[in-house]
Amino acid sequence: MLKTMITGSLPRPTWLAPQNQISSVSLRLAVDTLPEGQDDAVRLAVFDQHEAGMDIVTDGEQRRRHYIWGLTEELSGIDFNRMVKKETRGGRYKTRIDVARVTGPICRPRSIFLDALRFLKQHTTQPVKITLPGPMTTADTLADEYYGEPRRLAADLAGVLNDEAHELAENGCDIIQFDEPCFNIYLDAVEEWGISTLEAAAEGVRAKTAVHICYGYGVPQVLAWKTTNTDWHHYHRTLPLLRTSTIDMISIECAASGVDPSVLELARGKDLMVGVIDVGTEDVETPATVAERIRAALPYVAPDKLYPCTDCGMIPRSRTAARGKMKALADGARLVRTELVSKTMAGIPRVGRPKK
Ligand code: ZN
After folding, report:
1. Ligand 1 centroid to 110 CA: how many Å?
2. How many A from CA of 295 to the centre of ligand 1?
3. CATH: 3.30.720.120, 3.30.70.920, 3.90.110.10, 3.20.20.210. Which one for 34-344?
4. Mind listing the pLDDT tens digit of every residue in the chain (356 residues)?
5. How close is the Cα of 356 to the center of ligand 1, in Å?
6. How many whole angstroms from 30 Cα to the centroid of ligand 1?
7. How many angstroms is it from 215 CA to the middle of ligand 1?
8. Long-range pairs for 285-288 at CB < 8 Å and ≥24 separation?
């Protein structure tokens, strides 16, 4: 119970990419040294998770320039040569970012994350998770010049994601997580086609499937929105839909955003990854703070279905802070686990000597 993991990304070593760069990323290694450097970065990411005490391990997304580009750069029908500016996420964070253009039908010419999964499994004996960008969020992060409608683009993306997810599951991936921050934004579309498109991406996959819905990385424009927002009613629409969906696990950020853990009741019965680590600050939580956040979720989710987690990816953080936060996550979960075990033991009647 209370198995810990990170949402997905860890900061990259600064010899691989400058700290804090999350879009339009340029890697610091030349083409001939990059694969070796990425392997080494994954080794470090796995080592840091082992050392901190994570129960489920990822590759920290060390091989990707961006969590979505890791997929889209490998697909045909997408042009990265001439990118354009787009206001994504419904304009919520008031930023225009560089996005690639969709110029033809989306296809997956080859496996994308299979080698990364195999490398990860060579370096850990613990359960592993691979993250994939969800179809709605991926469509939102592209400039569509071919399909004409986001749902049509997302449907083809779901097709290639499903092929990818099947291959990962067949090769021993324990959890496949789809990142869908757009599920907190385009609520009508989530209801109309977002959930069914996500289910299509996960259809028939023989691994645990998860969806991560959050408010984005802990970067200034997101933090500005989070600190002023007080309206979390969207969970009353999305969580009941996800509760009856075929997706096994739901990941929700609860630490920094002020989301009341009582919304977790709306997803009762599902496995829940609950964000108990704020990814928007370098301050490292104490294990006691993490334990308090886990206890706050326990009235709404059974301990064997609760996975303490980070709010979102930690790529904008320093490596020191990320390591500290993972350790606090593991130590905080251990505190609560110990409490729960001793409570259970206290409830078991002691077997005495039979009376003569
Ligand atoms: Zn996130």
Report:
1. 27
2. 22
3. 3.20.20.210
4. 999 999 989 999 999 988 777 765 778 888 899 999 999 999 999 999 999 999 999 999 999 988 898 999 999 999 999 998 988 877 776 677 889 999 999 999 999 999 999 999 999 999 999 999 999 999 999 999 999 999 999 999 999 999 999 999 999 999 999 999 999 899 999 999 999 999 999 999 999 999 999 887 767 777 777 777 777 888 999 999 999 999 999 999 999 877 889 999 999 999 999 999 999 999 999 999 999 999 999 999 999 999 999 999 999 999 999 999 999 999 999 999 999 998 888 877 766 665 55
5. 64
6. 29
7. 6
8. 285/255, 285/325, 285/328, 285/329, 285/332, 286/328, 286/332, 287/328, 287/331, 287/332, 287/334, 287/335, 288/332, 288/335
How remote is the CA of residue 159 from the centroid of ligand 1, in Å? Answer: 22
Q: How far is the CA of 251 from the centre of ligand 1 (A)?
A: 9
* 312 C-alpha to ligand 1 centroid (Å): 4
Q: Report how far ligand 1's centroid is from the alpha carbon of 271 (Å).
A: 17
- Regarding pTM above 0.90, the answer is yes
Three-state SS sequence of 18-67: CCCCCCCCCCCCCCCCHHHHHHHHHHHHHHHHHHHCCCCECCCCCCCCCC
Give 348 Cα–ligand 1 centroid separation in angstroms: 41
